[in-house]
Amino acid sequence: MGLLGEGINEIIATTRNNAAPIGIIVKDGSLRMVLFHGTHTLENIRRDGWVVANIVHDPVIYVKTAFDDLPEDFFCNETYGDLEVQRLKDASAWIAFKTEIERESGEAAIVRLVPVAEEIIDNSIYPVNRGFNSVIEATVHGTRYVMNRDPWLKQLIDHHASLVRKCGGSREREALELLLGYIME
């Protein structure tokens, strides 16, 4: 299972009829996610015991899944032995994991991931794009900003927005406008 590298890998996690951007932490050969209580992702993992990491290169999908639900036609089913999972149809690659909740705090759970299947669908090479990376950063800050309206987070979002406008392509700029619409509601 070599699709993820050491550090935090930003992916779109899918569980049953749910998608959300999540960081998978790869450290010392182990894979984990930190999920906050009250999220659909954690509730579904508790119920079903699996999650799929979707590698996606569309910044609009990161923003949409951070703030909204995707329609059912974005998903497809995969079966491995007795495990049936859902992934994103348009993922470039995906990894299915069995999950185990290792420990919990008052606000989050640490989930251990055990890979069971993976597939590379699109072998395209994507160079580093500062605009794309800034959409991801602004989205992370945006999810926190809508909860507490911290002015420092808004400054960070504005900084990344300027990088998106300078370095991103049309899809990154579209994702930025979508993000700004979500956080201004």
UniProtKB/TrEMBL annotation:
Signal peptide: none annotated. Pfam families: DUF447_C, DUF447_N. Residues 9-121, 129-180 form the DUF447 domain. It comes from the Archaea. This is DUF447 family protein. It comes from Methanolacinia petrolearia (strain DSM 11571 / OCM 486 / SEBR 4847). The lineage of its organism: Archaea, Methanobacteriati, Methanobacteriota, Stenosarchaea group, Methanomicrobia.
